[in-house]
Every structure is written in C-alpha cells, then in structure tokens.
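Example complex used in Figure S2.
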Amino acid sequence: MPSDRKTPLWESIANDLRGAIAAGHYKPGDKLPTEAELAARFGVNRHTVRQALSHLIDAKIAHSRRGAGTFVLAKPTEYPIGKRVRFHQNITASGQRPTKSHLSIETRACDASEARLLQLETGAPVVVSTGISLADALPVAMFQSTYPADRLPGFAGALAAHSSVTKALEACGVTDYTRASTRISATAATATQAAALQIAQGAPLVFSTSVNVDDQGTPVEFGKTWFPGDRVTLTFDE
Amino acid sequence: MPSDRKTPLWESIANDLRGAIAAGHYKPGDKLPTEAELAARFGVNRHTVRQALSHLIDAKIAHSRRGAGTFVLAKPTEYPIGKRVRFHQNITASGQRPTKSHLSIETRACDASEARLLQLETGAPVVVSTGISLADALPVAMFQSTYPADRLPGFAGALAAHSSVTKALEACGVTDYTRASTRISATAATATQAAALQIAQGAPLVFSTSVNVDDQGTPVEFGKTWFPGDRVTLTFDE
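Predicted assembly (476 residues):
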C-alpha cells in the first residue's frame, strides 16, 4: 500500500501501475487487474482505483474496453506494404514476436470473383485459410487467404505444417512472390471479428485485399485482411 | 399509382424507384423522398412504402441512415495512390465530377510533428487548409493539408483562388510534386466528421497521412485525409 500521504492515493496507485508497465510486467495489449482486484491489492475503495485507471487512460498508457476491462495501450504496429509483404519480417522489424493462428484450412471450389483475381476458371479448386496474426500476444490482423490448389500441389498440407506462407509456398516450388495490387477501405468490426481480434464490435478496421504473384506474374494468393484501426498503421513508401 | 394488381404494390413501387435511379433521376448519394412523400405520391400507406424501400436496401441499391432517410447507394470510388496522387484526376477517371469545398485556410506556426514531416524549424509558418472533397455531390474525403509558407510565397491566396492544390502549387513555382510516403489506419468518425461527410457518427473511416515532395525531394505538403470506409477504396499497384 502507498505510504506517502502527501501524494493522493489514486496517484500513488497510478504511479505503481505505470512503473509495472514500464518494467514490462504488463505488456502492450495485456489486461490490467480488475477494479476489485486492484482495490484489494492496494487496500483502497474502487472509486480510488477508478481515479488511478482514468489517469492512465488520459495519459494514453491504457485504454478501457466496455465490459472487458482496462488494457495496456500498444503503440500502433507499423506494417510496410511494398513489393514484398512478409508478415513475419514486418512484425520482427517492429520489435515484436510474430505468430499466426490458423482457424481453418479448407479446399473448395472458387467463386467467380476469386476466379477472376487468381486467373482461374470458376469452380477450380482453391485452398482457403483463415486465421489471426499476432504481434507479441496482441491480435493485429484477421486474414482469409485464397490459393490456387492446382498450381500449388500439396499446399494445404504445407501451410498446416509451416504456418509461414512464404515457407509453404517455397515447399510448393514458389521461391519468390511479389505484391501485384493492394486495395484498401475501412469497415466496422462484426461480432465475430471483434471476438477474434479482442476489440469492440463496431470498432473501425482497415480492410485490405491484395494479390500476390510469382516471378512469372501468375497469381499465387488472393488475400483479405482486417487490421484493427488503432493497432496497425500500414505504410507505403514510393 | 401502379395498376397491375398481380404485382404486389410494394414491388411496383420498388420497380418504379429502381427505374428512376437507373435513369439517373436519383443519383448515387441522393436522398430518396421520405416515406410520407412516397406514400402520398403512390397513394399507399407507409407500411407498403417501407416494404419497397427495404427491398431496395436488400438489393444494395439504397441504404438507410438512422434518422436521416434512405439514400441511393454509390459504388465505392476507386482512388489510386501512387507516385502522383491528384484528386481531380482520380475522381474524373472514376467518371465523377470532382469538387472541393474549403472550410478554412489559415497561416500559423507549425508544431513539432509538422516541422519534422515538412523539414522545418518548429514554429515556422505553415498554411493549413481544411475542407471536404466531393465526387459528384457526395463527400468522399475530409482533409487537413499543411504547407510550408516560406517555401511557397503567396500560397494561401493561390489556394483560395484556384481550389486545385496542383494549380496553387504551380502558381508558387512548384511545377511537379510526388508522393513520398503514405500511412494508413482506420478510425471512427467523430460528430464533426460525421456531419461534414454526411455519415453516421462512429462510422469507419480510412485515415491516411501523406507527404508530397517537389522535384528536389523537398516536402511541399503534409496531408491528413479521412475517407468514409464504404465510399472510397484506395488502390495501390506495384
């Protein structure tokens, strides 16, 4: 419990939490203890805890999510979009640890829009993977990627084995691939997206669609990606 | 009033409105008549009008904005981001008529962030213009652009006279400028942005910041732009 009675109690608690965050005890994206837990830990009432948390929120050190609690605010991850967009490289370069969590990998017939973008016949088989990309423990993107199955024999298995798209493509003979086009708009998070990305329903998302091609210019991936608007900044340098 | 009694009334009204939209009588972004007006025009009750409007909304021909009415849905405007980003060219190329409405043009001292991006000393004078960009009558962007006043003598007057940034820069001796960098995130529309862009408060916006440089690589503009997420798709081709 704070002992210096000249400093208001809430301020001592705010300083204590600020120190724990600075020391890395709570990392960007981490949930802080609940008001009840903090009140018990510091031996104060919840009103005082709320003052301390409000102070951290005003100072842009934490943010609250309705019904979910208070979280350490992460600086937006810079995500370069260029000729070669590589998730693992991008996140590593921003000083964070990249992981991917696949929700599903399925093979099915492509629809007319996928066929046009991947230069396939409608109904040709495609591998569709969906999942979440994380930087440290924080979800920074939700993706749905579509790959031409006949051009990439064994791709579904390779993707399940490697998790890295670059390595899975390599296993199927694609030694390099480049971004042919990127299209960007914004959309409000659905309930499913909000749950997967740990954000509020309706929160603004950057919605990107992109086509990657091999060294012959043949499409090898059509990707849809949803980035939480306050966690990721896409950067483009000419 | 529709006379073919085999077609449900609401469907005749929906077809009538669909025809008027197809004929260009109501253009993308236009507000359709109110339920009361349509009920009076077609001699039916408001329930029937509501059925007709729901049909247009389901068919993605119109959309309703809470408290504001029903509007003809516009296909998103494609907005290419590349080496040379020109608002008038971009909107004209998408088959629409570009206009800009300036809300303010002021000269003031720049802050530390503007100084860094424009390669100025903090406190150097900058011209800051804010306004709305429209495609046909529909707001497609809200902007705040910052220009180095000392590098561009007479720029504030030129901008007020020309409205086109390209022409105003030309008048100050900048015959060409190119995009050096673009950064993109998403944000929820504030009340002010919502009113200016005629969208709902909290609606998702693409938020772009960019730096344009002259042929010597010297910054001539730092721009912040907010695009309604469902009206504009930014496109990037490698």
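Chain B touches chain A through 32 residues (CB under 8 Å). The mean pLDDT of chain B is 89.
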